[in-house]
Specification:
It is a single chain. The chain has 87 residues and is an all-alpha fold. It has one domain (2-85). 84% of the residues lie in helices and 0% in strands. The chain has helices at 2-15, 18-45, 49-73, 80-85. It is elongated and about 45 Å long.
């Protein structure tokens, strides 16, 4: 899901103007925050170290997608935990 949202962002950025890129970033951020919340639930319910490591890996992937998109759009990166707290 995160990769699909990232692809949509990339396509909008390539095809559009600054405002199109900004709208695509907003959409991507919303999807990443939704996935971040799901990841937090998985982390809470993790029962083993391997499950916790897998969930941590998922979070790292989400953060990397977010970081890349913010850099490409010219925005300051903020961790997903902070973005989620603003909602």
């Amino acid at each position: 899901m995160a990769l699909d949202a990232q692809e949509d962002f990339q396509a909008a950025k390539a095809a559009g103007t600054g405002s199109t890129t900004n709208k695509a970033l907003i959409k991507l951020r919303a999807e990443l925050i939704r996935l971040y919340r799901s990841q937090q639930e998985l982390n809470t319910n993790a029962q083993s170290d391997s499950e916790k490591a897998m969930v941590a890996s998922l979070l790292d992937g989400l953060e990397q997608i977010s970081r890349s998109a913010h850099e490409e759009a010219g925005f300051t990166y903020a961790p997903l935990a902070q973005l989620e707290a603003l909602q």
